[in-house]
Here is the input.
Amino acid sequence: MSGQIAYEIKEELHRILEFWRRLKDDRSGGFYCSVDFNLRVDREADKSGVAAARNLWTFSRAYHLTNEIDYRKLADHAYAFFVRHLVDNLHGGIYWLVDYEGAVIDSRKHIYLQAFGVYALSEYYLATGTRRAIELAMKIWHLIEEKGWNPESGCYREEFSREWEETDNELLSENEIVADITANTHLHILESYTTFYKAFPTKPLRESLIRVLDIFAERIYSPAGRYQKIFLDSHWNEIIDLKSYGHDIEASWLINDTLRVLSLNDDKYDKIVISLAEQVLITAVQPDGSLINEVEGGEVDENRLWWVQAEAAVGFFNAWEKTEDEKYYKAFADIWSYIREKIVDHRSGGEWLYGRNSEGDPLKSDVVEHWKTPYHNSRCCMELFSRLTR
Here is the structure.
């Protein structure tokens, strides 16, 4: 069965990457950033720093994994646009938003995006050996540590102006609140620093990674509820009753990836990895294998979003590898089957749907936008294929 699934995943990865190859902007650089539900491409839509970093990571990782020269060319194309238009050469860091030609629209700096810059540049370096990429990753890492780290509260700050004056966290807050601290930013710092450590291991970077692991263990993870506190105030108090199942299962396997890269064996962290996976399995998995989105204040959001399914597939497979408990392999196989049947867009020229509602109808949201990029689903396929074939 694993061999069949590995074949399916390889084929799906190729299909995803082919979809994004067709969105390559040969005139202005980068990739088009808007495709509506009817698969109409807006070639003059703005391009976000988040999408640009994720595109760079995706094709860099694809080349690193497959050694196919076409992916190297696409990674080079993504890198050229990223360093030419998203990097602020005066004040440092990465801009939030540019127009379709690369002119800056929103010059704010967010630590979440800076982390994705480190992530993408590190992967590009691992894939190509481009020295400038790792040097730029190092500069951004220093900025995150210098500007982002708050030793008084023991957290990473969130949002800044172009000149690195701290501002309210408007860009990464939602659910009608503004959060001083988010689990999401800390999770993607962990992810990016882990890839950076693969590319350029240093003692200070290792210490930073362990510090972020401790933040999760001591501040973000709730041992009583076995979930992550998503939005917090400056004193680490939860400001909304929210359980995000996609973020919980994503954190489970990303924390484990950091432990693996650091060769760190510690029950304190291992318990979090398995507890998050088990709680999501018990609470959020539906009879058809899919994962519901979240619960806020007791109100359940039953939408099956594309990224939540992708993260669950990797998270459950990781839990199976770690425990050899077959319930996790079954959950992985079931959700992969759901993805293939219900989330993959089987229309000609499609990629993955944004998701489906509780009745099973497609959500008619854009299939490409600033947050819907190739990152979650291509990473899911590359991560699973690597694990299934090693």
Notes: The domain at 2-389 is CATH 1.50.10.10 (Glycosyltransferase). The chain has one domain: 2-389. The first strand starts at residue 47 and ends at 48. The chain has a mean pLDDT of 97.
